[in-house]
Amino acid sequence: MRKWASLEESVIRAFFLTCGILAVLVLVGIFATLLSTAVPAFKEIHLSEFLLKKNWDPTSPEKAEYGILSMIVSTLMVTGGALLLAVPIGIGVAAYLSDVAHWRVREIVKPIVEILAGIPSVVVGFLGIVLFGPAIAKIFHIGNGLNAVNGSVLLAIMSLPTIISISEDALNAVPQAYGEASLALGASRWQTLFRVKVPAALSGIIAACMLGMGRAIGETMTVLMATGNARAFPHGFLSSVRTMTANVAIELGEVPYDTTHYYALFAIGLVLFVMTFIVNLVADVILRKYQEREQ
Amino acid sequence: MNVETGIAKIETRDLDFYYGPTRALKRVNVSCYKNRVTAIIGPSGCGKSTFIRTLNRMNDVIPGTRVEGTILLDGKDVHAPDVDVVELRRRVGMVFQKPNPFPKSIFDNIAYGLRINGMKDKRKLEEVVVRSLRGAALWEEVKDRLDENAFALSGGQQQRLCIARALAVEPEVILFDEPCSAIDPIATAKVEDLIETLEKSYTVVIVTHNMQQAARVSDYTAFMMLGELVEFDVTEKIFTNPVNKLTEEYITGRFG
Amino acid sequence: MKQARRKKIAQFLGFFLLRAGLTLVLAILLLFLYDIGRKGGGTISWEFLSQAPRKGMTEGGIFPAIFGTFLVTLITAILAVPLGMCAAIYLNEYATQGRLTRLIRLSIRNLSGVPSIVYGLFGVILFVNIMRFGTSVLSAGLTLGLMTLPWTITASEEALKTVPNSYREGALALGATKWQSIRTNVLPYAVPGMLTGTVLGLARAAGETAPILFTGAAFFLPYLPKSLGDQFMALPYHLYIMATQHHQIEQVRPIAYGTALVLIVLVLGMNMTAVVIRYRLRRKRR
Questions:
Q1: B45 in helix, strand or coil?
Q2: How far is A207 from chain C (nearest CA, A)?
Q3: B contact chains, 3+ CB pairs < 8 A
Q4: Residue A127 banded pLDDT, cuts 50, 70, 90
Q5: Which of A9, A119, A120 sits opposite C208 (nearest CB)?
Q6: What range defines the domain where residue B193 resides?
Q7: What is the number of other CB atoms lying within 10 angstroms of the CB of residue B236?
Q8: Taking CB atoms and an 8 Å cutoff, what residues of chain B touch C191?
Q9: Which has the higher per-residue pLDDT, A4 or A248?
Q10: Taking CB atoms and an 8 Å limit, are C171 and B165 in contact across chains?
Q11: Over 50: is that where the pLDDT of C209 sits?
Q12: N or C: which end of chain C has fewer CB within 10 A?
C-alpha cells in the first residue's frame, strides 16, 4: 500500500513536470519553427539586403525585391509615437492612482482600466477607422486618416493599461518612509511624488513602459486596419505606413507555399520574435532586479 | 553527558543541518525518552526549531537544505531508504508555532488525517474525533458546534484543535514547536496542562523560548546555542545546578 | 511665504494635469463603448444573432461567427486550462530552485510577450502543415490555446501562492503525501482564483484575430463547421472583414458595428463572469 502510494507520488510529480517542460518546448518550438522556415529565404536574399533595403516587392515580374527596412521603420515609428503619448499619460495616471486619488476612486478606476485592456484589438482597429480616422483627416486637412498617427494613438490606448498597472505596482512598492521623510522636510505632496517616489520606482516604471512597447511592436490587427498599409518608405507621421505585423497579415494568406516570398514572411516573423523577445527580456531583468532589491 | 537512562524513543547522533552553505545545527546529540517531555530551550536563532523539524523530516520540504548525522526512531534511522517519510510523519506528529487550522469545520479538521489515510467509516470517524477532542481538552467547549468553521475558535482553542488533530492519527511522538508563542497566558496554561497529561501516552518534545514553561512541563531539558547543544540533562538539574557556565548565564537571564 | 505659495500652485497644477490624464483615459473608454453601443445597438435583433449572413454578407445575421468563436474558444480552453493549471501546480508546488525551473519560468514570461501574429505563423507550420490538421477550427483553437497557456499558467500560479504554507505543512505533518496535501488542502482554496485568471485568458483569446487569420478562420461559410477539420467563421475576423475587406464597405457599416458590439459584450461578459466566480466562491469559503 505504501509502495503504491510513493509510486503514485512520483507518477503525479512526473506528470506535472511534463506540463511545465511543455512551456519550454513551445518557446523553443516557436523559435525553431520560425528559424527553420525563415532560413530558406536567405538562399536568395542577402541578410543585409533583407534588413537594410527599403523596397519590398516580392511579386514583381522583373526583379523581386525583399527589403524590409520600410516596415521596420514603420513599426518603430508607430511604436515610438505610441510611447510618446502613452508613457507620460500612463505614468501620470499611475501616480495619480497611487498617491493622489481617494481609495474609492482607485477601486473604481482599476477595473475600468482592466476593461480597456480587455477590448479586442480588432475592435480598437475598427474604431480607428470609424472614429479616429475621420477626425485625424479633418484636423490635419488630409484625404484620409489612416496613417501612422492613427496607429500611434490606437497603440497608445492599447499599451496604457499595461503601463498604468505595472507602474502603479512599482509606485506602491516604494517604502512609505521615503515619502514621509520628504514630507517632513517641508516638501509638498507634488514635489514628493515626482522628486522622491517616481525616481525611487523608476526601474519598475521603465519596465512597465518596455512591456507596453513589446505589446505595441507585436500588435497586428489595430495597425493593419488603421495605418493604411502603403508599402513606401514613410515620410512622416501623416504618411500611410505598413508595419511588419501588418505585412505578414496581408500577404501570408495569398502567398504560394514553398516560395522565397513565403519564407521571407516567416523571416519577418522571426525578426518580430527577436525584437519582442529582447524588449521583454530587458523588461524582465529590470523588474526582477528591482524586486530583489525590494526584498 | 550522563543522563539517567530510560528507553530512548528518539535519539540524534552528531546531527548536522545546513541551509545551503549555512550550518544551522552542529553535531547535536539528544535523546528523547519514552513517556517523558523533553524541552529544547535557547536564545532565538539557536537552531531549536530547526532541530525539532528535522525529527519528522519537515525540513525536507525546504529547498536547498541538507541533513548529516543520524536520527533514530526506536533505534531505526529515519533517513534509511526504506523509511517512508509519510508514515514517519504520521508516527511523529507536530504542532506548529502559530495555530494552523485548515479552513474547514472543526469536525473535518480532526478527521482530516484519518481520511487521507483512507478511513471512510463514518461512525469510526466520529468516535476518533470525539476521543481526540477529549484528549486535547477541547470537547466540552466545542461539542455543540462541530460543524462550525475552525477559524471561529479563539487562538488558544485553535491551538488545542491542532493538538487534537495531531492526536487523531495516533502518533507515538508529538513535537511542539513553540506552541504557546502566539496565544494568550490563560490559553497557555491550558495547553501546558494538556502537555503534561499527554506525557502518559506519548513521547513529547517541546521547543520553547520560555524557560519557566520548560521548567514547568518538562522532564528533560536541552539547552542550545548557535546551533550547538550546550547541555542536556534532567530538567531539575539544568535549572538548579547546571554544569556549563553558558547554561547558567542563560537560565539566570543574563542574556537571551 | 512666496515660496510656499508657489509650491501650492505647482501642486495644484500638477494634480490637475494628472487628473486630466485620468479623465482622458476614462473618456476614451467611454467614447469607445458609447459609439459601439449606440451604433451597434440598432443593428442587434434576434434575426441578427440567429441567422447566417445573406446577399454577399450585406444582410442577415452573424450566427455562424458567434458559433465559430464559441467553438474555437472551447478548443482553446480544452488545451490551455488543464495544461496551464498543471504547469502552475508543478511550478508552485513541486519545482525546486534550479536551472530547469528558472528556464521554465523564463520561457513562460517570454511566451506571454510573443506577438499574436507570430503564434499564428507557428500554428501554420505546426498544426496546419506538420500535424496536417489543415486550416481548420482545430488548428485555430490549438494555436489560440498555446497563446493562452502562459496567461493561464501565470494566473493559476498567483492563485496557488495565495494559499498559506501552513495548510501544506499542517497536512504533511499529519502524514499526508504531497499530492494528498495539494489535492485536499491547497487546490480547494486555489481553484476560484485559478478559474478567474483562466477565464480572463480565454476572454482575450476569444477576441484575438491574428492567430486565426491563417489557421482556420473563413471569410464566409454558408454552413456551420460540421467537424473539427472544417473552417469556421469567427466574430473578430468577421469584424475585420466587414470593416476593411467588404466591397460595399459603407453599406455594411451597421453590420460591422453590430458585430463589434456582440464581440465586446462577449469578451467583457466573460471578464465579468470571472470576477463573479471569484467573488462567489470567496464568499462561500467564509
A1: coil
A2: 13
A3: A, C
A4: very high
A5: A120
A6: 8-98+173-251
A7: 13
A8: none
A9: A248
A10: no
A11: yes
A12: N
Digit-coded pLDDT (tens) for B142-165? 989 999 999 999 988 999 999 999
Domain total in chain B: 1
Q: Say if CB C203 and CB B117 are below 8 A apart.
A: no
What pLDDT band is residue B2 in, cutting at 50, 70 and 90?
Answer: very low
Q: Do A280 and C113 touch (CB under 8 A)?
A: yes
Q: Looking at the structure, do residues A33 and A56 belong to the same domain, yes or no?
A: no
C86-113 per-position pLDDT tens digit: 989 988 888 887 788 888 888 888 888 8
Is there a single domain that holds both residue A35 and residue A137?
no
Question: What's the pLDDT at C286?
Answer: 47
The backbone region for B69, taken as left when phi is positive above 0, alpha when psi lies in -120 to 50, beta otherwise, is left
Domain annotation covers residue B167: no
What is the rounded distance in angstroms from the CA atom of residue B18 to the CA atom of residue C13?
Answer: 58
Amino acid at A246: A
Residue B4 predicted with pLDDT over 70: no
All domains in chain C, ordered by first residue: 65-236 (1.10.3720.10)
Same domain, A137 and A29: no
- Please give the Cα distance from A76 to A144 (Å, whole number): 22
Q: Which residue range is the domain that position A196 belongs to?
A: 52-294
Chain A residue numbers with beta carbons less than 8 Å from the beta carbon of C206 are 120
Number of domains into which chain A is organized: 2
The verdict on A261 and A158 lying in the same domain is yes
d(CA C276, CA C267): 14
CA-based nearest distance B86→chain A, Å: 9
Assess if residue B246 is contained within a domain.
yes
Summarize the confidence of residues A123-141 as an average pLDDT: 92
Claim to verify: residue A146 and residue A202 sit in the same structural domain: yes
Tell me the per-residue pLDDT of A51-94, one tens digit each, with 9 for 90 and over.
888 888 888 888 888 889 999 999 999 999 999 999 999 999 99
* Residue A161 neighbours by CB under 8 Å, 6+ apart: A113, A114, A116, A117
Residue C25 scores a pLDDT above 50: yes
* Residue B217 domain flag: yes
Distance CA C152, CA A19 (A): 12
**Which other chains touch chain A, taking contact as 3+ CB pairs less than 8 Å apart?**
B, C
A134 shares its domain with A25: no
Q: Which three cell numbers stand for residue C57?
A: 454578407
pLDDT in tens, B115-138: 988 888 899 999 999 999 998 889
Residue A127 shares a structural domain with residue A181: yes
